[in-house]
Structures are given as structure tokens and as C-alpha cells.
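Q: Please design a sequence for this.
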């Protein structure tokens, strides 16, 4: 498959965001509804047994279609392209639990309760629909900007009323989070998913892999079926009730664990509102750090500004708010909660293919993203546009300044106030109070 391409006459693939045994997952744009989506494309041609893979793919579509719950990724559409099936799902703006814990380490017990409640609600909905996930792990859990915990990737899900589809030498699940009975080849049950849930929560409470940190599958599997997961009760983590529950979920034998996600959810009890707010803030901090890391890694004066003859005057400068207009322009944006995105869309291709025309187009695209609340993606896109304008038009050209202004808006919204203020000040110093508006180049369009 050549990237980017279009599926079904409406889904334009932008960037690969994941992949595995089933195929590749892409960020895409739905041209009909003008929204970002995630598209999973099954690669039958790379498998010796394409029929089995097609059965699995259809099973995932059927599994997701059975489930309607805010804690489970939504499926929008499915189809075929060049004899390869694809599945269209909601695009989740946020961070995986795996990446969050990897960067932050152990989380507060109150925050872990929020995550546990979201995952239990997702599993309860799936199990009520007679769907077993069978690959619950931190990288399959996304926490959105609003603090919503969403379970995804039902690629090896089994419908409880259908026979299992297996292949020789195909491992059903991820060893580090796979239940002992699955390793032994026994039939899965709701308790199988709950074991994996327990290991996810164990990780969030300790910041450490429950079965040890090893790239070798052998020791992990051996530990899972022999010694099992080390209990938490003597770790001094606080919240004894939560620790006891996690230890029960991690027991080796399925009959010794809680038997339903609803039971676990009931034992968790109501979640404290401030705990949910803390989880939301953790996601925003993560995304803000990502954006600032990219911002600080771009050399500000690494390229000597130059204005080639074919560019000089070719792009009239858009309106740049002066010092008097910054507050007014910011107020036009309103103050909605940002829909955080970790996706970089096609940024890897932007600088390589950028021309004066595409730079102006990317500038408008970034402003529209910012106004829709998709701040990290807008900020990253603006970084590339700013670099182009600085190199070809100069640091003080109106196109450069307006891009820096909107970049400052994004940074301010993401909480990077120091960096935003520096950019605002620079724009104000060069634009002054008499910025001239040009309707034909209004970047808000």
C-alpha cells in the first residue's frame, strides 16, 4: 500500500500510528464528515492463511459492533479495498496507559482507582455483549484529554458463543499480561480478562512490570505459571482495599479471582471527582511536555534567513495582531477544554515537500486545528511552518510573525505560559498596535 491513499472514496490515510499481526493502523481523514478517524487495514497478502485472518478481522468488527459504551473505542464503518478489509474507528486523542506510566512511574492510588473503574466498565460492557477481549494491556488503553479511559484493539477478541480461531505458532495475547490459563491453552473466560486488568493496575501502582523487566518471553511465561505475580500487600502503597483487590485479580487460578467486571466495579465504589481531574491533568502535562520537547529541539536561528527572488513579495503578510489585539484575538478562540492529540499527522513529510503555497496552506490548516482545540498537532505543524518562513522570508516577515502568534496561543492553552509569553512579546514588538488587516490572507479562514 502506497501512503497516503484513500479508502472507500472518503478515508484519506495520513500516517501510520500502529500495527501488529492483524495489519496496520492509520490516522485518516474522513472527507465526508470532516473528522479524524483511525483506520485498521488487514494485510491478507502477508499471511500464509489469509482466510483465518479474515475471520479474525470480521470477528473484531462484529465484537465492536456489539458494544456501545463510552469506555470502549467506537466503530464507525468497515469495507474492502483491493481485496483487503478495513475497519474505521474513532480517533482517540490522548496517551496510552503504557506511555503514561513509563514516563511518570507509579501513579497515585486515587488515580489508579479512576483507571480501574474505566477499565472495569469497559470490560463489563464487553462481557455483557458476550465478548472476551483477551489482550488487555497498558498499550491497548488510551486516556483521553478529558480523562476518559478507553479500551481498544479487540483484534483477537473471542465471541463467547463462537469457536476459537487459532493458527499454528500464533500467540493469542501478550505474554507479559497473559493469564496463566491462556498460556496453558485453556479456554478463556471473563476471569481471564480480569487477570490482565489486575496486571495493568499492578503496573500503575508500582511503575514496574508485574512479571519482571525482560525482553525474553521465556522467563516471563515461567514466572506467570509458577511463582505468579508478587503480591502488593507488603509494599506499603496505601489504600489497602485497592491493593487487596489488585492482588486478588492477579491470582494464578481463575476461580480464585473475582468472577465479573461488574463485581470489581462495585468493590471499587464511587470515584472521587478530584481524582478524575488529576488524571486529566496528567494527560495534559504529558502532551504539554511532548509539545515543549519538540519546541525546544528546533534551533531558532539555525538557518540564515534569506529571501529568494521568486519569494520576495509573493506572499503578502497576513494580519498580525498588535499588543492591543492579543487579548481580543485570544478571546475569539474562546476557552474550551483542548482536545489533546499526540498524532503528528503528516508532519514528517511537511518540511520535505513544503513550498510557498503549501506553507500558507499549512498555516491556515494549523490555525483551524488550534481553533478546534487540537492544540498539540497545531503547535507541531506551526513549528515546521515557522522554520520554513524563517529560512525563506526572514524572522520578521508577517507570515513568520502570524505563525508565531498562533503557536503562542497553542502553547498558552497547553499551559506553557513562559514560552507563550516570550512569543507573544516578540510578535507584539514587531507588529506594533497598527497591524494591517488583509482580508484575502486572513489566517482564520
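A: Design:
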Amino acid at each position: 500500500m502506497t501512503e497516503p491513499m484513500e479508502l472507500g472514496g472518503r478515508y484519506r490515510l495520513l500516517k501510520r500510528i500502529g500495527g501488529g499481526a492483524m495489519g496496520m493502523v492509520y490516522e485518516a481523514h474522513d472527507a465526508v464528515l470532516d473528522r479524524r478517524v483511525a483506520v485498521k487495514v488487514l494485510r491478507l497478502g502477508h499471511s500464509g492463511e489469509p482466510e483465518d485472518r479474515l475471520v479474525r478481522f470480521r470477528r473484531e468488527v462484529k465484537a465492536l459492533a456489539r458494544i456501545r459504551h463510552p469506555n470502549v473505542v467506537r466503530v464507525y464503518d468497515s469495507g474492502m479495498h483491493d481485496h483487503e478489509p478495513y475497519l474505521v474507528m474513532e480517533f482517540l486523542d490522548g496517551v496510552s496507559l503504557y506511555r503514561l506510566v513509563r514516563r511518570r512511574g507509579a501513579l497515585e492510588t486515587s488515580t489508579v482507582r479512576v483507571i480501574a473503574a474505566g477499565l472495569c466498565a469497559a470490560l463489563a460492557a464487553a462481557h455483557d455483549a458476550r465478548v472476551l477481549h483477551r489482550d488487555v494491556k497498558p498499550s491497548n488503553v488510551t486516556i483521553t484529554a478529558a480523562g476518559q479511559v478507553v479500551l481498544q484493539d479487540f483484534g483477537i477478541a473471542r465471541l463467547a458463543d463462537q469457536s476459537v480461531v487459532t493458527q499454528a505458532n500464533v500467540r493469542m495475547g501478550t505474554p507479559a499480561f497473559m493469564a496463566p490459563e491462556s498460556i496453558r491453552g485453556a479456554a478463556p473466560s471473563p476471569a481471564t480478562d480480569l487477570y490482565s486488568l489486575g496486571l495493568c493496575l499492578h503496573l500503575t501502582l508500582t511503575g514496574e512490570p508485574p512479571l519482571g523487566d525482560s525482553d525474553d518471553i521465556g522467563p516471563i511465561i515461567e514466572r506467570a505459571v509458577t511463582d505468579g505475580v508478587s503480591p502488593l500487600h507488603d509494599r506499603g502503597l496505601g489504600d489497602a482495599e485497592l491493593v487487596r483487590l489488585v492482588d486478588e485479580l492477579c491470582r494464578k487460578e481463575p476461580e480464585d479471582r473475582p468472577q465479573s467486571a461488574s463485581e470489581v466495579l462495585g468493590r471499587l465504589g464511587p470515584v472521587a471527582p478530584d481524582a478524575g481531574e488529576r488524571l486529566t491533568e496528567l494527560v495534559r502535562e504529558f502532551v504539554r511536555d511532548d509539545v515543549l520537547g519538540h519546541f525546544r529541539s528546533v534551533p531558532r536561528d539555525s538557518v540564515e534567513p534569506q529571501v529568494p527572488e521568486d519569494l520576495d513579495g509573493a506572499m503578502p503578510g497576513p494580519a498580525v495582531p498588535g499588543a492591543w489585539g492579543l487579548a481580543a484575538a485570544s478571546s475569539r478562540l474562546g476557552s474550551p477544554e483542548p482536545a489533546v492529540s499526540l498524532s503528528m499527522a503528516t508532519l514528517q513529510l511537511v518540511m520535505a515537500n513544503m513550498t510557498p503555497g503549501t506553507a500558507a496552506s499549512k498555516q491556515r490548516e494549523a490555525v483551524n486545528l488550534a481553533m478546534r482545540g487540537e492544540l498539540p498537532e497545531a503547535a507541531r505543524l506551526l513549528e515546521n511552518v515557522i522554520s520554513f518562513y524563517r529560512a525563506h522570508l526572514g524572522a520578521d516577515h508577517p507570515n513568520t510573525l502570524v505563525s508565531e502568534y498562533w503557536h503562542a496561543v497553542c502553547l498558552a492553552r497547553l499551559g506553557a505560559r513562559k514560552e507563550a509569553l516570550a512569543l507573544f512579546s516578540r510578535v507584539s514588538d514587531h507588529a506594533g498596535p497598527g497591524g494591517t488587516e488583509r482580508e484575502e490572507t486572513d489566517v482564520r479562514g
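Q: Thanks. Anything notable?
A: Residues 160-172, 300-352, 433-445 have pLDDT under 50 and may be disordered. The chain is about 45% helix and 15% strand.
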